[in-house]
């Protein structure tokens, strides 16, 4: 850096010396040349001062200011050379307007002001004495650029408090205008911001993390941030930083992932998914005893320990180890072998006085004492967790003392980050569902408030959307006997049934995404979705129709059972109203669902009484409805099926 700046300064210093020498040799306009020489010498002195302080200079404004200064000195040298002519004829034919010197004086003064500002802005906080730097003459055309330079220079050389204030100012600039955000990136602001995130005081870390989140507003900017090392810095903060900083960092992760989905896997490679889940689980699952999963079969002490830690349903030790079959929520110790985990438990109990290390018990003995052992282990486990930090990766030591609002905001931002990281990414969805996250989302949907609930619902919507397209993920994470899945579905059902929440639409979408996971006997979801078809808000009715279509479409193995349930719940009359009188977007969704129902249950008396065939015949004549590929494919088939099974009399023809 210092060598490069010296190279940049070398030519302007040479030009200044040449101007000074040529001014001494002037034979005309001697007074003007002496004035020009005086200003040039002052500028040369500042340039040499800059060369001596080259290691401290902020590169971006240095390049811009020195380039402009070099152009000014080139013009000054040309002007002085014109005054050096010796011959009479040369002096006669060389015309130098008086205004040329006035203009050159002004340009040299501007260059002096620019270089002086550069030296002041690059100086350390102690040398600057908190003086107001003002704006250099070069800022006349673009004052914001120089303001950004000043704040970035403070990030490089200022005290921690000054750097915090500078980061807060960059936050304001980046929030106000996307172009300012791009300028901050182009002018080298990312590096010192990341350094402040790692090394600053808590307020400075918050401001810097927030600035990083605001800078990543487009794929190009996020890619620049990723190359600068944002993933590693954020992972370190999420593991060890103060909770307030971690919450802002989680928000920043969500912003970057939302604006540039390609960075999702990079965050995952830095263990950020696991760290976010640990924040989501902190004081979420343990305090709700009703979510603990008990087993009615004989268990060993190791199984009791695993059940208590995981909150997952198991039948024996083998099931605990085999996550893919019975245990959808893996243990925090990951793939550690059972005997290793057992040693951890026994050794820890032995080291804590008054807690006797358990002997290898018989199955009958464990049947009668399993709950007591589980309680005993929880005491030891939480004690060890407070001493050594969380097994999930993030250090949770001292987090209990944080205020309630900070804890709630941390959970909300962790859920928001997981929502955007999971979107369209099957690998990350696997990681999330294999952790305790689904259980956490279920608890937060029930017990959380405001933003925590909404972000949890959106995360579930994105995870289920990926599971809908990924058969293996769907069968693993959302299998019917999965306790976490049951809790999630229960909460989604409750919200849909109440139908008066901003969570309604993401929950409707999530249930629709899970349509292929429900058994034929599980029809409780159908009725509340059918009721929502009669909703006054078109968006809600549309999403309800789309969700029901996923139950009734041919791709769903149980489409016949679900179609009958929709008819039994009174869905036909609502769909007819929507096809006739609904908004265009709702008309299409309602027509597709009506076609599937007619296709699968053409002999239904309810459809005949509702004159569904008449509705389909009317719809087939509406050009705006038949342009869709799906409608064009299934509408004629649905009509022919109804015509085959229903007489003209039953349709009301006379």
UniProtKB/TrEMBL annotation:
Record domain DUF7792: where: 6-122
GO biological process, one term: cell surface receptor signaling pathway
Protein name, UniProt field: Armadillo repeat only 2
Key words, A-Z: Repeat
Domain of life: Eukaryota
Transmembrane region(s): none
Nucleotide-binding in keyword set: no
Keyword Nucleotide-binding assigned: no
């Amino acid at each position: 850096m210092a060598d490069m700046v010296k190279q940049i300064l070398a030519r302007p210093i040479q030009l200044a010396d040449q101007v000074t020498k040529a001014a001494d040799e002037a034979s005309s306009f001697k007074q003007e040349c002496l004035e020009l020489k005086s200003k040039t010498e002052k500028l040369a002195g500042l340039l040499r001062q800059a060369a001596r302080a080259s290691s401290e200079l902020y590169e971006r404004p240095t390049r811009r200011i020195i380039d402009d200064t070099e152009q000014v000195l080139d013009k000054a040298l040309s002007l002085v050379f014109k005054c050096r002519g010796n011959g009479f004829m040369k002096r006669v034919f060389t015309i130098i307007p008086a205004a040329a010197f006035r203009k050159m004086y002004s340009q040299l003064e501007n260059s002096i002001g620019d270089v002086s500002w550069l030296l002041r802005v690059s100086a350390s906080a102690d040398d600057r004495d908190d003086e107001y730097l003002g704006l250099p003459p070069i800022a006349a055309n673009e004052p914001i650029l120089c303001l950004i330079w000043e704040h970035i220079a403070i990030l490089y050389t200022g005290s921690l408090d000054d750097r915090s204030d500078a980061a807060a100012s960059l936050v304001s600039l980046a929030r106000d205008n996307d172009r300012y955000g791009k300028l901050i990136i182009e002018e080298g602001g990312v590096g010192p911001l990341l350094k402040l995130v790692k090394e600053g005081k808590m307020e400075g870390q918050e401001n810097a993390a927030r600035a990083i989140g605001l800078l990543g507003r487009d794929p190009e900017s996020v890619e620049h941030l990723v190359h600068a090392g944002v993933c590693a810095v954020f992972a370190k903060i999420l593991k060890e930083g103060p909770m307030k900083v971690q919450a802002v960092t989680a928000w920043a992760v969500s912003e970057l992932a939302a604006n540039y989905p390609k960075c999702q896997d990079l965050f995952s490679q830095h263990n950020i998914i696991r760290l976010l889940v640990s924040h989501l689980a902190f004081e979420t699952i343990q305090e709700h005893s009703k979510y603990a999963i008990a087993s009615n079969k004989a268990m060993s002490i190791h199984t009791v320990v695993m059940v208590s830690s995981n909150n997952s349903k198991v039948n024996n030790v083998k099931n605990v180890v085999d996550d893919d079959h019975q245990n959808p929520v893996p243990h925090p110790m990951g793939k550690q072998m059972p005997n290793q985990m057992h040693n951890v438990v026994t050794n820890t109990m032995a080291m804590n006085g008054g807690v006797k290390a358990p002997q290898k018990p018989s199955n009958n003995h464990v049947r009668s004492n399993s709950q007591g052992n589980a309680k005993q282990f929880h005491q030891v486990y939480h004690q060890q967790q407070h001493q050594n930090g969380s097994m999930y990766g993030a250090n949770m030591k001292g987090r209990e003392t944080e205020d309630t609002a900070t804890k709630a905001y941390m959970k909300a931002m962790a859920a928001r980050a997981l929502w955007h990281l999971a979107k369209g990414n099957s690998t990350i969805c696997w990681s999330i569902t294999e952790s305790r996250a689904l259980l956490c989302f279920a608890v937060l949907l029930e017990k959380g408030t405001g933003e925590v609930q909404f972000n949890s619902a959106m995360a579930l919507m994105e995870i289920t959307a990926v599971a809908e397209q990924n058969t293996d993920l769907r069968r693993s994470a959302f299998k019917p006997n999965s306790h976490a899945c049951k809790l999630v579905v229960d909460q989604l059902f409750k919200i849909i049934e109440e139908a008066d929440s901003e969570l309604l639409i993401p929950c409707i979408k999530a249930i629709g995404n899970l349509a292929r996971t429900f058994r034929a006997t599980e029809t409780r979801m159908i009725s509340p979705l059918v009721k929502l078809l009669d909703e006054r808000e078109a968006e809600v009715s549309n999403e309800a129709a789309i969700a029901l279509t996923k139950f009734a479409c041919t791709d769903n193995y149980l489409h016949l059972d679900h179609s009958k349930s929709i008819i039994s719940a009174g869905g036909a009359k609502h769909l007819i109203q929507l096809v006739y009188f609904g908004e265009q977007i709702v008309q299409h969704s309602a027509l597709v669902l009506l076609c599937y129902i007619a296709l699968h249950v053409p002999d239904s008396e309810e459809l005949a009484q509702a004159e569904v065939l008449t509705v389909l015949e009317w719809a087939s004549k509406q050009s705006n409805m038949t342009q869709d590929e799906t409608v064009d494919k299934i509408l004629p088939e649905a009509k022919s099926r109804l015509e085959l099974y229903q007489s003209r009399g039953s349709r009301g023809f006379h």
